[in-house]
Each structure stands twice: as structure tokens, then as C-alpha cells.
Amino acid sequence: MNATAGPTARSRAIVALILGYFAVLAYATVTNDPLALTVAALGFGVVAIAVGALLYVQAADPGPALLAAAGSLVAGGLLQFVAVLGRSAVADGLSSLLVLLGVGCYVYAVWSRSA
């Protein structure tokens, strides 16, 4: 992804990453292919990091909730790499929790700004 690309191009790249992740995840689930499962797990980390970075970069005035969302997503994505490379179920679970926390913080940030 080009770091100097405009917001629209970055958003489209993120959407493409997410769609690619779900395509690989669907294939891995149907075929139970170990390589595809590993690629899907790594894709989860890439998507989480990319979305977290995009939230941070595109926010004109990131409040604490948006910063927490971006940080949790990036941390969850990085921890997913640890989970895959270290074959750690604990790291995998913690990664999922951090990503869920990031999504929750993002929802709260959007909700609190519109209220």
C-alpha cells in the first residue's frame, strides 16, 4: 500500500485486503488446507494493522477512544504474528480480544461524536 496515496486509495486498499482475507478464510475453512489457514491468520494480522494505521492517519483530531481503537488494532495485529510464528493459542486469543477491543473503541468513538 502506498503511504503517500490519498485517503480514497488507502481506503480502497484496506477494503481489498479485507475482501482478500475473507476469500482466503473461506477457502481455508472449506478445504481445511493448513497453508491457507496460516495465510488467513497472517492476513488477519495484516488487516488489523492496516485498519489501525488508517484510523490513526486519517483522523484529523483523534480523541482518546480513536487512539485506543488504532492502538488496539495495531497491537492485536502484531500479536497475531506472534501467535502464528510461535504457535501460541494464548497469543491468538489475546490478539482476537485486542482487535475486538479496537472495534469496540472505534464504534464508541463514532457514536460519541455523532451524539
UniProtKB/TrEMBL annotation:
Query: What highest taxon heads this organism's lineage?
Result: Archaea
**Residues that span the membrane, as ranges:** 12-30, 36-57, 64-83, 89-111
| Record key words, sorted | Membrane, Transmembrane, Transmembrane helix
Task: State what protein this is by name.
Answer: Uncharacterized protein
Task: Name the species this protein comes from.
Answer: Natrinema salaciae
